[in-house]
Fold these 2 entries.
Entry 1:
Amino acid sequence: MTRSLFGRLALYLTAIVIAIYSAFPVYWMIVSSTRAPQAMFSSSSLWPGPFTGEYYSNLLELTDYPAQFINSLTVALITVVVTMFFSVIIAYAVTRQRIRGKKVIVASMLYAYMFPPLLIAIPMYTFFTRIGLGDTLTSLVAAHLTMTLPLGVWFLWGFFKNMPFELEEAAMVDGCTRLGAFLRVVLPLSLPGLLTVAIFSFLLSWTDYTFALIMIGSDANKTVPVGLASMIGSFDLRWGEIMAGSTLIALPLFGAFALLSQYFIQGMSAGAVKG
Amino acid sequence: MSSKATFALFLIIGLLVTLALIAAPVVYAISLSFYTMDSFVADPEWIGLANYARVLSTGAFWNALGNGLVYSISTILLQVVIGIGMALVLNQAFPGRNLVRGLSILPYLLPTVVIVLTFKWMVDGSIGILTKAIAALGLPPIHWFESPQAAMASSVMVSVWLWTPFVTTAFLAGLQTVPTSLYEAAKVDGTNAIQRFYHITLPMLKPVLTVVVLLRAVWTFNKFDVIWLLTGGGPVGSTEHLAILSYTTAFTKFDIGGGATIATLSFLFLAISVFIYFRIFPLDEEES
């Protein structure tokens, strides 16, 4: 398709505006996290530097950040594993069988998309406090599962629906049991779908602030988003450290995105994502 | 294990997990709304519909519902318009397109906390980069959070930035399913780009748009953390929506029954709205 010179220029310009609009805050966060304290106040240069590693070393040595990072990672990894395990089982049972009980699951998962977070958080917090498990990472994992499980089931449901039944039947004719066919044929073929579910479960759990704010009370059990947000409440605002902390939460996500962008986009296009 | 037993096992596990994690909390929340409880360990006392009568008769509830609607509707309109615009641009061929597409998703990957903190840093009263840029242009300083209107506008702005990639990505995926032959035929008929957008692109993408708007509407209405972190619901309740009201009622005033009541009403309102939405914009019958 041929375009006029003017048309092409306008297109490039808009593309540049989109890139800056989307990426500048991220860029600025990273630049600020490495800019020396004096320059933070005086310099308004958009280029990075003068550099310092001071904020990162303060954050890692003087604050609870490393412990919170471990908490976040623990919660997110457990959430991912549990989500994958149950959503595969549920989605498979729901797609391959016409039985009673199926409707309950599907309808619950659909409604779960609409639940206000407080509708889950208030009873969960009450329940876990009453059984003596208030303020634990376990209770936070349970809360995160209410977001990730519906997502996993919905996404894999669509995935299994498009997988021909003949594949398993062929395996079963060859002497596999149903479970064997599921484990040896269906699961390996679902790997891309499983990966998408894993990525989004991780993303939801890792970035969650709301549930972590409610379920966790003690500093020792805080996850990074809550820990970082409480830094802004303190009287002296240490922007350098706050931006360093922000960069460190975001980095794993950027890394994952760079490696697995096709799965991110697949998941987002499927509308499987809650935010 | 027989095929039937495998399925039965899977289904039982599925039902149990669904009941424990999805159904039980909601049933518990709704039952809490019929009780009064002034701490999380106190014994609940049955009061019937008294919480509902109390909540519905306060101005705070209606104020929060109104704020939530203003916030959700303006956020959705803006992100749909900006998202579609970005998708149309990113669907054109230009050098570096994949890079720009990747960058355009960045906001969606970031934790809300990071977005809010970075925004607050950029508009910091004395040394924020936006504050400096505005001063350099000779414009009067903007007080982002101090007036009710400004606080609402800031909340909407940050939310639009955060969620536009969702619309862009969904729309971009949809654009790729529109056959190019349609555009070519329309071009032969002498239509211009704007006519082609209204008469081909939009109708073809209506199903995508219907779902995207619905999902975004539900999640925006429920979103707690953006506004909570930005404004805390202030100044003087001007950005307090139902999620924040429910949170402060239950967790700072320790009126657990009241908080549960607000959450339940909020869900009820959403469920009714979604029902009406489907009446107006029916989804094409998909097998389900």
Entry 2:
Amino acid sequence: MKPKFGVVVFPGSNCDHDAYYSLKKVLDYDVEFLWHKENDLKNCDVIILPGGFSYGDYLRTGAIARFSPIMNSVINFANNGGYVMGICNGFQILLEAGLLPGVMVKNKSLQFICKDVYLSIENNDTIFTRGIENKEILKIPIAHGDGNYFADKETLSSLVENNQIVFKYCSKDGSFEEQYNYNGSLMNIAGIINKEGNVIGMMPHPERCTNPVLGKTDGALIFNSIAKNIFQMKADPALA
Amino acid sequence: MFKAKVLVKRRPSILDPQGKAVEKGAEHLGLNNIKNTRIDKYIEFIVDTNERLFAEKEVNEYCRKLLANPIMEDFEFTLDEIR
């Protein structure tokens, strides 16, 4: 059985077509675009909030998109255990919506960073990572100006306690020196998941690296992990 | 020393896309009485001199040449002496 992905399109999204292309043309899953003014999630199994600059990043990244009509449905969907994945700007929207804790501030270098980075998988017991076998480090590009993850002390310790940090920036060999923490995120955080395990946010762009023609395919591992695990999880919620 | 507080505002006739986009969020929140949202800039800094006139002159220049674009923005500022 194939899962059906829904890719939300906000005004200013610019990775929506990459996500659609990767999921549909490269990985052969069912995909629908979901317009921000609609409420209907069209029976999708997984909702993707894509990268981009929704509403021009005005006020704060994700701050306005969070109140789009579609987001009411996405929040309900998530609160009922639906799987939601926020990539880059999508992650920022999830933070503003309160589906994930913390905020994103400007990169410590004050520069927009667009480059391939290495990520260590810190939690391989999520639907998004469980299917990634024999691999502890992924190579996936980042492209953002505001990716410097910040949260207060209590939030951070609760993230650690509950094993909610899924990806951390690292070197090719998996070490965590400051130079690999490109944007200055606390604890090298690149991706986190909620306590329930159904909402993930990550700054790197897996949808940009699924096609072998482009020289890297580690993004496909994440989408394939979702596809491999989703129906199993639904059948047995204890696994979630 | 003085503490300068500068407010830079777009002229009312100039479109403020950020204000318009943010107001969309208010609509989505169901706040229907919010009109004419304008997002301006508030800037603070220290002026390290004891001469008020000199401080005023320098802040004026900072505003005119860098903080504001006089073609589309107005600015105002206050200077509070720090003892």
